[in-house]
Amino acid sequence: MKPLDAHDADAYDALPKVELHCHVEGAIRPQTVMELARKNDRRLPTSDPTELYRYTSLDSFLEVFWLVQSLLADPDDWARAAHESIIDAAPHGLRHREMFFTPARHLAAGQTLAGIVEGLSRGIERAEADTGVSCMLICDIDRSFGPGPAGELVDAAIELRRRGAGERLIGIGMDSTERGVDPRDFAEAFARARSAGFHVTAHAGEDTGPDNVATALDALGIERIDHGLAVMDDPDLTARLAELRVPLDVCPSSNVVIANRFARLEDHPFRGMRQAGLLATLNTDDPAMTDLDLGREYRSVAAAQGMGWEEMTAVALDGVEASWLDESDKRRVRAQFRAEIAAITPP
Ligand code: HPA
Ligand code: ZN
């Protein structure tokens, strides 16, 4: 099959897709960023937020991410962010998303997890009705706040579940800066989340080496790895993850633009990860803060890595396997994806 070029827009948007690594705060439209700042009486350093969207490292990105996320001041703001993020992704083939939010800053400022989850759930429900896209939530621990707030966050999530609120909240994750943070400090919080029945995942190996992934896996008992690209530096770890089919939700464009890990998409190990047997999927991470959408991510990676249509449809189907849908939903979604893929004219 001929290599694809970056202009084969329709097939890549039509390809049905699951997304397992997208931060709702990183998916806020620039226009909405401006409007939230005005509504909540917050001054931004520029009248065009996209001027801030250039990063030299993960930590420089996080400064901007924290500024943007701090504009979400009440449940209605969270509802708007969630709703728009799904409305924007649907035309690019999104069918199911398990979406991160990172509320440490908001909880410290007096918001409640119950209010945030209520707002997000309301926005998601409206978007589901508008688009048919399904979406569940993963509450991320912000590592930079340390293990104390992490434990409190998990307790609040458990309490929400006990009260029968927050049925969309299916997982606990962890993001933010990797450097100088030992994943083992969060072992207790993750153990409590696991025993309360939450799925668990964590960002690892985005900005540091393979030891960070191995430690997160062993100390936190995570089921999935967010990014995880550093595993390719450790053949034994790669073989272990491939054998166990541990999903890696990889974000190649983000790794170029945010973590500055590679100069070009061509240099990213995505195809090599799959050829090594890893269950590596494609995701946008922070689409509005990197001028990205999921159709473009598939299209660009296919072109840059020389991946054919068959390989890319396999990536989309692996998204279903890597998700936290239950087995009967996975069977249903997989059959639906296969039928839709059969009707797409390959690029
Ligand atoms: N890594 C760490 N923290 C983040 C990211 C990421 O990719 N996106 C938003 N917060
Ligand atoms: Zn991320």
The rough form would be described as globular
Q: Looking across the biggest beta sheet, what order are the strands in?
A: 1-2-3-4-5-6-7-8
N-end to C-end Cα span: 10 Å
Radius of gyration: 19 Å
User: What is the domain tally?
Assistant: 1
Query: How many E strands?
Result: 8
Write down the CATH class: Alpha Beta
- What is the H-and-E element order? HEHHHEHHEHEHEHEHEHHEHHH
Main pleated sheet:
8 strands, parallel
Instruction: Give the number of helices.
Output: 15
The amount of helix comes to 40-55%
Beta content: 5-15%
- What would you say the CATH architecture is? Alpha-Beta Barrel
Low-confidence stretches: 1-7
| CATH homology-level superfamily | Metal-dependent hydrolases
Coarse structural class? alpha/beta
Ligand kinds: hypoxanthine, zinc ion
What does this structure look like?
This protein is an alpha/beta fold. Helices cover 48% and strands 13% of the residues. The protein starts with 8 loop residues before the first helix and ends in a 5-residue tail after the last helix. The protein has one domain (6-338): Metal-dependent hydrolases (TIM Barrel). Strand 6 (224-227), helix 10 and strand 7 form a beta-alpha-beta unit. It has helices at 9-14, 30-39, 58-69, 75-89, 104-108, 113-131, 147-162, 187-195, 210-220, 235-244, 252-257, 270-275, 294-305, 309-322, 327-342; strands spanning 17-19, 94-101, 134-142, 169-175, 199-204, 224-227, 247-250, 279-282. Helix 7 packs parallel to helix 8 (187-195). The chain has an 8-stranded parallel sheet, sandwiched between helices. The protein binds hypoxanthine (HPA) and zinc ion. Zinc ion is lined by residues 21, 23, 175, 203, 226, 285.
